Amino acid sequence: MDRYAAVPSRLCLLAVAMLVASAGCMGNPFKTAASSPAAGVVPPAVEVPGAPPVVNQAAPALPYAPPPTTASYGSAVDAAALLDASRQQNQLLEEEVVALREQLASTSRQLATALRTAPAVPSPTPTTADRVTSGGDVMQSALSQLQLDDLPTRFDGSVVRVEIPADRLFETGQASLVPGAPAVLSMAAGEIERVYPGHYVGIEGHLDASPLQGNGELSPHALSAARAEAVLTFLTERTPLKDSQLFLVAHGSNHPVVSNATAAGRERNRRIELVIYPELAPR
User: With a threshold of 0.85, does the pTM exceed it?
Assistant: First the structure.
């Protein structure tokens, strides 16, 4: 009975021995796991016989980020001082602007007083060139208002020229007006007085270069002067034009308007020109 009772005890001891042997092969089940190395820590290198030595490399360092800073008390004091100085400068500028406005107003009042009390300065007398230039513009702009039927007109410098063919006023080589001449001269004088009232009007006599026919006693200048005088007499006696605004000039054949090489050219050169000037005649 005692021999069989000791059998279980031996069996228990055998089981414990087998369990211990099994734990030695697979590791100690009662041993806690080793903690893993910390981040950034490199474990020591293990040298293997016959292999080149292994050099431990440190983990790459993280970039340094400075901690956020806040304005110091000294910076705040400096900013307040700058703001105060800027306010003072703005105030000074405003005061200067006010002073300048007051000075400008005072100067304006003084200038107005001086202008009221200053004697009148006469306007400068226009020169001859000024009168010619301004008068010429007026003369040219009014030229289109003349209604002279078929009489040629042109603007020449500062004067207006009205051409009357000599054949409509005189017989060949004569200085007496033909019956149709009064109508032509009256129409021309009326238009001149309407468009250019009171202006000086020159009466110019012109001839062509042909020898005179029908009156061998007169020279070209004498004949052109006699014709101009006949027109002057008619205008002063039969038209609104006044003697004080008329004068005559005898050119003979010295100023042809076209060439005398053709019959038509010679016919046009025999003419009376009524020359209207920009100046006004005294009343």
Answer: no
